[in-house]
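Changelog note: in this version the structure field was regenerated for every chain. One regenerated record is shown below for reference.
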Amino acid sequence: MTGHVLADTRSGIAVDLPRLWEGRYQLSDSLSGALPGVERELTLRFIKADSTLEPHPMLVIRVVAAATWNALEPDSAMARYGTVVARDPARTVAVRPASSNPLTTGTADALAYDSLVMIVIQRPMRASLRPEPAKR
């Protein structure tokens, strides 16, 4: 991994984000149970120049049970969960960047938000999964 690594110990994932993302987001574990088979849902929200938090996510990272992912057609799985950035026999990691910018067009915050999201869209994301602990 090379850029800014987001490591989440609860989900066992590490995602390589562009270095420009460092210090520009807040991470929360937003698992709501709304999507079947999702084991973890990590939400990255933009931190504005005045240090307030944009409530709409810039990026959502989902850890999905492989059985759930594999039971769906590939296009349907991507539409529901996002683009695959890592997988192992038990889990699939999918990411979904924001589809639109919720900030006021033309403001410095809106321009920064757009540039951060565009970097993620334009470059292949990489992630890794820590092996699940052995069951006893």
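Spot check on this record: The chain has three helices and eight strands. The chain has a mean pLDDT of 88.
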